[in-house]
Fold these 3 entries.
Entry 1:
Amino acid sequence: MPSDTLKIVHVSSPFSWRGGEQQLSYLHAGLLYKTGVETIVFCPTGSELSKRLNPDQVRTYSKKSGFDLGAARSLARLCAHENISAVHAHDAHAHTTSVLAATVFGMKQPIVVSRRVDFPLKKKWFTRFKYNHKSVKHIICVSDCIANIVKPAIVKTHMQVSTVHSCVDTSRFKNIEQIDFKAELGVPADCVLVANVAALADHKDQFTFLRTAQLLAERDSRYQFVIVGNGELEEELKEYSVKLGLTNRVHFAGFRSDLPQIYHSFDCFLFTSKMEGLGTSILDAFANEIPVVATNAGGIPEMVINEETGMLCNVGDDNQLSVAVEHVVKDRTLREKLVRNASKKLNEFSPAYLVSATLDIYRNIV
């Protein structure tokens, strides 16, 4: 089917702006402006997506819960009135809404589901039902790790599961006015700033980041640390930082909408997740030539090849992580090698690849 006959609706449920929403926006823009595919984003009223995208390309709904019959009804009506070719659900609640639209309100369009987290699938009947629903034709996983988790739960022969890696648009980081983030934090310009950019959630495991920071701070007074992001564990992490004696060494920067302008201030990117679908913040670090030290959780090893594109350490091993950071900081040859190889690795995670691979999936199911 020619691209210009396709019309896709992207279903999203979060109010926040995190990695999944960034990837949806990359896909939406790439399809619309590079292939001529018409796309509509169906998201909650007041969500970050609804604020950042062109209003002509957005349809909003009033989100009540994760199991939302009102949203499902609105989606089914949208698909009928707009002559939609396929529905792409980008998160768990969006998946539920799409399946409800098909089951309860007779939505006829085939459904594609994106799976971005490496949590095991719940054994509840509705989870199994929605993953094997007859309208769901393809599940896109952002890493091979996730695909291997999903495949055993699929029992329907009509279902396909494949990996399409997330991407990074490197142009976001070019020709921009940079911020002196170290000055903003009030740390010395010649300090070694070790950064973590992630939601403050349990699976991101910033507690290990803080224990690693404690070890590094004890060895070298040059180290300073920053955690960029917000989330439900913010107060607990701040209290833990104080308990570790890091009051003047760890800075909590909160959510930043100007990330492209501050990455250049980081000397090392330390990513300590214990579970991770892929970890697109690492791609941002690659794009900004920041050396990466990360845990071997989930899909991270599909980006971070130990001693090639970054340093890879065991989950929760703060001692190993601290030693790896020291190697990167002190060994200029190693650091330059990691940055050089990481830049090349980015070719595998381009927006063009994301759009092309996803478009092929749409064509196959419509």
Entry 2:
Amino acid sequence: MTEQQEQRTGNQEEAAGPTKAAGADERCREIERSIIKTFRKEIWRPFVKALNEYDLIREGDRIAVCISGGKDSMLLAKCMQEILRHGKMEFGLHFLVMDPGYNPANRRQIEENADLLGIPVTIFESDIFNAVADVDQSPCYLCARMRRGHLYANARRLGCNKIALGHHFDDVIETILMSMLYGAQVNTMMPKLRSTNFEGMELIRPLYLVKEADILAWKEFHGLTFLQCACRFTEAAEAAGLTGDHLSKRQEMKELINRFRTINSHIETNIFKSVENVNLDACIGYVKDGARHHFLENY
């Protein structure tokens, strides 16, 4: 066996996880096969297209796949395992789980799903839920920012140069609408970003072109159960008898897009392409490299 073959075998074993009982192992293989076969058009092709179109993975990368316990990050982990097995590039994978203060049942569900799916997770703990518990304004934003910092720091400790997050196509178009309707600006969730606080680190979003409905279909096809938002705000709302569905601006965007779909079947694609086809000749102003510009500058 050549040195390159040994390295590839090591990467695959690292990504594959521990050996399971025969029945559980067969179910895991069925779930893996379905990504490439049953859901080839809906999941695998958009996943590979995003990798290629946005140059998300390069030879020699060491990538920390960040797992929250939800359907998106668990599917991302499986897709990354499959592209390592079947792709042409050599890269390393780690699967990183941050426990920000989950209750024991939620922590256990993440561990059981990881075992079922053959994902060898590394779990570290933080105190983020306690840190944002008394924050009145934008606790979700603060929580997300703090999570990101912890993930970067722990990924770097593992020797990684990239973190991979499970954001999907619907997250992208919801962000576009939110930025317009609530932020008074036009921007979106980018497929990759360089970290401003962790030099040499990068964030990638390999599910960028995969639609949430197809992720749900994959989940339901296999009868899988994943965490929803497991933060204390959601748990408190559920305990109070609230559904939690109307607590966020992002949920408002989901409902707005659903209404748009009844009018125009191409609405999702059009929203997405709006940030690919920005016409600066028809913009009153724009921001570039932190500097604000006005159309009168060159009128």
Entry 3:
Amino acid sequence: MKNERQRKIVEIVSVKNVGTQAELTRELRLAGFHATQATVSRDIRELRLVKELDPSGEYRYIMPADPASDMETLRNIFRECVTNYVCAQNIVVIKTLPGLAPAACIAIDKMDIKDMAGTIAGDDTAFLAMRDNEAAQRLYKEIKEYL
């Protein structure tokens, strides 16, 4: 059931502009899949979906095509939605527009950044835990370059 649901998610985001988990949950229900928001959230993470700004100015979920696309998606996410970022010892804190911190963390996780212990995303805040203070400072400088 999970594989079928995830295949359907990929199909849905390929043909429709779906920008929220609620919209995706609704589309799944219309297709005969009854999944909770928490399940859809896990599916989005496992499928590594990211949000992209479409030509009409709306955000939508997409499947990145390849690693080069992932890097460009990360740059777009940062350019479009990061409002502030700070380094606090071994943690880099990124503030985003509402709802976009998970997309930023997904993109960052896909980069396999050396010395990153992990990421945690809220609605508009992402915490990037680095192994040490120096690694956090290096990442902070890289983020500055993206912007």
